[in-house]
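Quick bug: riboflavin kinase output formatted oddly.
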Amino acid sequence: MQKIIYNPLTMIMLNLAPTTALIGNWTEWSNIEDEIIKLGLQTDQDLTIVNIVEDDHLKVICEHAIDFQARENHLKNVITFIIPKCTPKEFYNFESFKSMFHFKKIIINAGHKFLQPIKTVMGDEQIQVVNALKNDDNLFFKAQKALINGDLKLYKTLAGANYNFSGIVVHGQQVGRMINFPTANMQKGELPFKQGVYLAKINLPNDETTYWGMADYWNHPVKGLTFEVHIFDFDQDIYGWNIKIELIEFERENVKINNLEELKILLTLDKKNLIKKIN
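Here's what came back:
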């Protein structure tokens, strides 16, 4: 399976073999997306999932989960098609669907936001529209409930992968560094998973090492909802880096801390417990 991230602003040139494109709301995977794949598998064409992304808000069905579903169904490609921020609707450009991706046919759900501009480029004869009603017993709702409850094992069972996301490391107040627990802060706002402490894996750009760490999603009294991660056995300046996070296990809920000494004792215990789980 080939993974491609395409942003029209980067002017990247591609020349893919012809396939049938499957376009759904993959980050909200439901019975409708199941039907799109089912119809695709009934053709004799190689298939490509196209995940159209127009914002950086974290989704319930993450990148790794979409990749897993694609592999399970023996699909040829997964394309993340990025709509640049602040792009006016009249400038949505899907010409690359023909010129670079060479889609022979597109199967798309009837309610998809970009159905009409895609039709304008491809023509009605190349489009198969899936008309189906979304039911409540689907992957999205089950996975969403698992994340809200902090049940990462159930999430992985449902979605086929651990929950993952990426973000830019920003400057915090460096309180953790004062007690020998420096953290990489990611000011992500409201996230789809439960607040609390997690065991996590971390990947850095241009570094093949997968690091372990402990992360906390909490409500900072000044900055609001904040995600930060303490990377074990690591002490480098990574401000401005885009790092990847994979949540492995929910450890505990957040508790009120009265001073730095209490915080240091609690984090020391958290780290000891989580390292046991790694080993």
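Actually, after a second look the formatting is fine. Residues 162-278 form a domain with the Elongation Factor Tu (Ef-tu); domain 3 fold (CATH 2.40.30.30). Closing.
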